[in-house]
Amino acid sequence: MPTTPPKPTASPAGQRRPHHDLGLQALYDLHQHLYRDYADLLLAPTDADLALRATQDYLTSEWTHAVGTANPRAFAWQALRHRVCLLAGPGPLRPLAHLTPRQQDIVLLHHALALPAEEVANLTGTETAAVYAEILAIAHSHHGA
């Protein structure tokens, strides 16, 4: 007599996600320490934890949509940035309020965290040439002020 296959059970906490989420897991594993550093710049440690968990939960629920976008890395970065900025409020970014969001990211990632332009581009899903152009524009506007 044939046996019926076992019903799938929920994965215990801490186990890898199913194979269709391996791309998300790889992206998150690759950038998690940088996501943490960014969140720590603007948030208290408990809020940084909250922002990271909320971002991972959001990306898990929207991953199918994310991979259908032109750039899943940019999608993931914007998800993190949005959650960090919501929790931070306007205070920490007030000195950068005159800059565009992309320029704010570059100031924080390149100047404050000392990431090379190539790594900023990879993390945020931006072209490296665009990051270099923004670095020059920020430097020019700073020296021209």
Describe the protein in words.
The protein starts with 21 loop residues before the first helix and ends with a helix. The N terminus is likely disordered. The radius of gyration is 18 Å and the shape is globular. The longest helix is centred in the middle third of the chain and has 23 residues. The chain has six helices and no strands. Helix 4 crosses helix 6 and helix 5 packs across helix 6. With 145 residues, the chain is an all-alpha fold. Helix content is 68%, strand content 0%.
What overall geometry do the principal axes of the alpha carbons give? globular
Q: Averaging pLDDT over every residue, what do you get?
A: 86
Low-confidence stretches: 3-19
Over all CA atoms, what is the radius of gyration?
18 Å
Residue share in β-strands = under 5%
**What letter string, H or E per element, gives the SSE order?**
HHHHHH
Cα end-to-end separation? 83 Å
Characterize the main sheet: none
What key attributes describe this structure?
145 residues; mainly alpha; 68% helix; 0% strand; globular; disordered N terminus
Write the layout of secondary structure elements.
Layout lengths: L21 H21 L2 H23 L4 H17 L12 H12 L4 H8 L3 H17 L1
Helix pairs in contact: 1-2, 1-3, 2-3, 4-6, 5-6
